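Progress note, sequence design subtask.
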């Protein structure tokens, strides 16, 4: 059984990582999310560099923080009234040491280059942890699909792909979905790619099941999050059965995390969207949530008009004041800060895992560690989505279609292996129980070795 004592700080001031970080700050001004993601990784690598000085000589860190390629492009489209709009599209192909670039596409008004770089950088280590052959990338646009008609979304997706197609391909770069990009958007983008290239090929993952998608891809991130948390709980002589779980978001990750928690006997009592959160002491009714969010595309507050015991609160931050045993932030970056972490600790929360990318601020993570709470960072905890995307690529290459059971078993095995690897790396580098360090170290070493082997490219 694992001990519940976490080694909090790994290495804070290493002159080499500090110098790399300062260079990142000066070369990438105005991109705080990217700085935050880089700092978290660099802060964990001091002991690795002491043990493997060959990484220093080959300037692996300096190369790793510089994307291999960054694309920014214009996306013009027309709304239903004939009015013209211009959005900005991005694809950052960060690192291809382990395989073709792989990472999602985000449609959200907050998207700018710094967000895509932070997500692309995280993706390098996440993809490495899955054990599959995938490099790291991310893409997106500041287009807001909310309130747009299906035909407007289609025209936008077609325009976006009309530029993106020339940079991607099944052996080059294989995008997937992310915030604001689900089955509908994937379909429109795939259709346009196929038309331009005259090729039906596995260039996107998260495709529809009738045209090259994989079973379990829709559920993968949420299920994977619960599989890895279940391993961690088991290692600490606990299980989801009977636990109260607080989840934020009400999109793809949140919905399927909720489903798996319920299957394992836990009770999910909160969900949210960018306007506010619901609290249902009876446990959220997932059929209502799916109908409201996935079918009707309405706001989460509609839930309380059906379930009279539930309460809706405007604004998102209060969600972490609700007493729970396990907290799973599944909405967006930096949604859980130090105050929220303190509230969770005070209310007896025992474990937190990141379904979203970087939803916890560094200060919140310090609070978890200093309170000996179990904590799994997103690059390990939400790797299930990209893992099944990797399995979708494998099925496409072989022209086969796996059963739900086979894909689900593979996902579970991958999440279990990730848990073992990050625990082992944390042990080996003298910070047992610190899965932030474990994930960064285990993810990094594989990429660094591949970069060394492939020469100065
Ligand atoms: P969805 O678009 O399906 O859902 C996102 C959810 O988060 C919605 O409920 C949305 O509310 C809420 N949200 C978005 N932005 C904000 C904000 N600024 N403040 C509060 N709530 C917000 O996205 P996913 O579920 O796919 O993604 C959620 C997170 O998980 C993201 O961080 C993503 O990068 C990460 N992730 C997703 C993977 C996947 O396979 N889908 C894989 C790995 C990570 P609203 O409807 O109001 O916008």
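Output:
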């Amino acid at each position: 059984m694992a001990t519940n004592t976490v080694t909090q700080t790994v290495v804070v001031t290493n002159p080499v990582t500090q110098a790399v970080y300062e260079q990142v700050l000066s070369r990438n001004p105005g991109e705080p999310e990217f700085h935050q993601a880089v700092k978290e990784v660099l802060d964990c690598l001091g002991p690795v560099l002491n043990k493997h000085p060959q990484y220093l000589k080959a300037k692996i860190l300096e190369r790793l923080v510089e994307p291999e390629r960054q694309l920014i492009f214009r996306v013009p489209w027309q709304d239903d009234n004939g009015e013209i709009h211009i959005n900005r599209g991005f694809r950052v192909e960060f690192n291809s040491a382990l395989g073709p670039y792989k990472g999602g596409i985000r449609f959200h008004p907050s998207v700018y280059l710094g967000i895509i770089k932070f997500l692309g950088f995280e993706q390098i280590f996440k993809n490495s942890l899955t054990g599959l052959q995938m490099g790291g990338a991310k893409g997106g646009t500041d287009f807001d699909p909310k309130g747009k008609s299906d035909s407007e979304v289609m025209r936008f997706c077609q325009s976006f792909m009309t530029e993106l197609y020339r940079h991607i391909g099944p052996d080059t770069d294989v995008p997937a979905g992310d915030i604001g990009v689900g089955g509908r958007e994937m379909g429109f983008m795939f259709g346009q790619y196929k038309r331009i290239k005259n090729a039906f090929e596995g260039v996107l993952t998260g495709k529809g099941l009738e045209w090259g998608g994989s079973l379990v891809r829709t559920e993968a991130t949420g299920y994977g999050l619960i599989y890895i948390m279940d391993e961690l709980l088991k290692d600490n002589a606990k299980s989801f059965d009977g636990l109260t779980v607080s989840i934020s978001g009400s999109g793809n990750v949140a919905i399927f995390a909720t489903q798996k928690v319920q299957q394992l006997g836990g009770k999910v009592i909160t969900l949210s969207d960018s306007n506010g959160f619901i609290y249902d002491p009876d446990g959220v009714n997932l059929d209502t949530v799916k109908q409201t969010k996935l079918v009707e595309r309405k706001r989460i507050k509609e839930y309380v008009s059906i379930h009279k015991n539930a309460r809706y609160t405007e604004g998102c931050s209060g969600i972490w004041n609700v007493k729970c045993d396990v907290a799973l932030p599944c909405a967006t970056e930096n949604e859980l800060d130090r105050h929220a972490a303190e509230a969770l600790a005070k209310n007896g929360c025992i474990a937190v895992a990141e379904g979203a990318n970087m939803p916890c601020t560094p200060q919140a993570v310090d609070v978890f560690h200093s309170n000996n709470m179990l904590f799994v960072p997103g690059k390990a905890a939400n790797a299930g989505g990209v893992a099944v995307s990797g399995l979708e690529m494998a099925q496409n290459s072989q022209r086969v279609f796996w059963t739900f059971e086979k894909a689900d078993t593979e996902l579970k095995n991958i999440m279990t292996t990730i848990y073992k690897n990050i625990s082992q790396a944390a042990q080996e580098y003298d910070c047992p129980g610190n899965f932030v360090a474990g994930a960064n170290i285990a993810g990094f070493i594989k990429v660094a070795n591949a970069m060394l082997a492939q020469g100065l490219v």
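The pocket of NDP is lined by residues 177-180, 221, 249-254, 273-275, 316, 330-332, 335, 355-357, 382, 385 (CB under 6 Å). Work on this subtask will continue into the next period as scheduled.
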